[in-house]
Design goal:
CATH architecture: Orthogonal Bundle
CATH class: Mainly Alpha
Distance between the termini: 44 Å
Largest sheet: none
CATH superfamily: S15/NS1, RNA-binding
Number of strands: 0
Radius of gyration: 18 Å
Order of helices and strands: HHHHH
């Protein structure tokens, strides 16, 4: 958990507009700061498995938020990854199976290539 001052600095740095505390970019930035702090903690306390589990949950949540941001706004995703110095992942379009098209689950207009 971040203390209030650090969290406010992160929010101010990554906010899209004044008063923005819940945008995807801000959420990812806060999670990244928490992940960095937990990583440092686990370097000292190698057997702290409950903190390790919390770290893995935060990493998963950040990954989901980044996938969402990449699908909604690719430019914002690129900018955020550069600013946070994260590895860039390819969250390309979802693969669609031929059976899904035949069953009518996915309309053919949405399918680029199978």
């Amino acid at each position: 958990m971040l203390d209030k001052k650090v969290k406010q600095k992160v929010i101010a740095k990554f906010a899209i507009k004044p008063g923005d505390t819940g945008s995807t970019q801000v959420q990812v930035a806060i999670l990244s700061e928490e992940i960095n702090r937990l990583t440092e903690h686990l370097k000292l306390h190698k057997k702290d498995n409950s903190s390790r589990r919390g770290l893995l949950k935060k990493i998963g949540e950040r990954r989901r938020l980044l996938r969402y941001l990449a699908s909604e706004d690719a430019e914002a995703y690129e900018d955020l990854v550069k600013r946070l110095k994260l590895k860039k992942r390819d969250f390309g379009p979802k693969k669609v199976l031929e059976e899904e098209i035949e069953m009518g689950i996915v309309p053919e207009q949405l399918v680029e290539a199978v």
